[in-house]
Amino acid sequence: MTSFHTRSAPKLSHKAGKKLRPLPPPQKAKVSMKAVSFFVLGLALFLSLLLYKFILSQESTTKKSSVLASVQKSQLRGGTTVNGRGGVDDDEAAAALLKTNLGLANMKSDIASV
């Protein structure tokens, strides 16, 4: 008759019997307080300059638009200038119109640069 041979368990290698070493605890990132303070200071400076630039651009836009509105009103009133004098000659009216057009061109370039 045939005999059934049972298989023996495979022999473990010499490494398998050893216990695994636990992983060391994770190291915390060592960042100095000086570096953190410089970063925060730089970020605050950058944000304040950005806000300053935004405020200046808003002021210049409102200033230009108020000048433009006053020149347009003076043109509608029939020749009185911004300072209220009557009887404006053609040269002064042309200069005011040129200044208005330059202001519009500057506003367009300011808007395009933002």
From TrEMBL:
Transmembrane segments: 35-56
Domain of life: Eukaryota
Keywords: Membrane, Transmembrane, Transmembrane helix
Keyword check for Transmembrane helix: yes
Biased composition (Basic residues): 12-21
Region (Disordered) residue spans: 1-27
Listed name of the protein: Uncharacterized protein
Organism: Pseudictyota dubia
Lineage: Eukaryota, Sar, Stramenopiles, Ochrophyta, Bacillariophyta
